[in-house]
Amino acid sequence: MRWPGILVISLAASAAEAKPARPPTPSPTSGDFWREVVEPHADEVRALVSKSKNAMRIADEALQTDAEWAVEQRMRYFEAAYGMMRYARTLSPDSGEVLGLLGRAADELGKTRQALEAYQAAIRVMGPEKAGAEVTGRLGAVYLRMGDRDAGIRWLRQAVGPLSPATAPAIAQLANALATRGEVSAGIEVIQAALPLTTSYYSHEVSLVTFSLAIILDRDEQRGAAFEVLDRMKTTLQQQFGTQLQNVLAQTRFSPAEDQHYYLALLYETLDQLTEARAEWALYAASGDTPWRARALDHIHAIDAQRRTAKPKTLKPTTSQPPPPVPRLRRRP
Hints:
By secondary structure, the chain is mainly α. The chain contains 17 helices and no strands.
């Protein structure tokens, strides 16, 4: 009898069947083979990019809360994104998407040199058109913060296009930079070209660009025109005016940084919060050699004069509901 031999063969066959099947080796003629050769870490890089984008999204959403930990927590998410993108760059050094995200994370953390290098590398890899406003616009803003206004304007012009969440900051920054260079009319034209002819709804990007138009008109002492812009916004947004602008300004990275005081001051003044407005005008005026310092001092003098001539209000009993509280404005870190 030959049972033992047959049994051994049978057990060997069963053991072979029990082993997990190995994935087939890609053929040299298949797309998967060359993809593995050219991008051996593609899956890992994609996962890191996805996690990084999610971290940045959570960080941005933190700005819309009043929690005291929001600013610190936001920086932690950007630090995590920065670490992931630095590692992703070692795996895929020529990925334009990785370089763009690395630049943004570095910029948010105040790592200006690293942000500048990453944005420039992204543009070298993809070209300005493919890099898009997310990269060219942020690169222009970095140059403005570094004091190189001409380079900033050049890259911001590259970023300007149809109004969208990506192009809105570049449009506002370009308009302000042109006005600061003495080209006020050109700055106004940039904004007017981007805004729709009629507006029945103020999205985040429309609100930012429209309010920036009011800022430029105010700086140019076109007070009546600035008031008309703000009045249209208040009429459309009604009680949401303060909250809407609050969220818009909280998520805006200003270039130069002291412009944040000017924007907040005009918003406070429009909301009749004169104490807060005066404080912001004073902060802007004290921010060094600011180009619109004289205009900020004009606002301070006007607020002081209004306070001196204001009559004390007499409180009357009423049974109507009190007006909603004016939102507390938050500064962007």
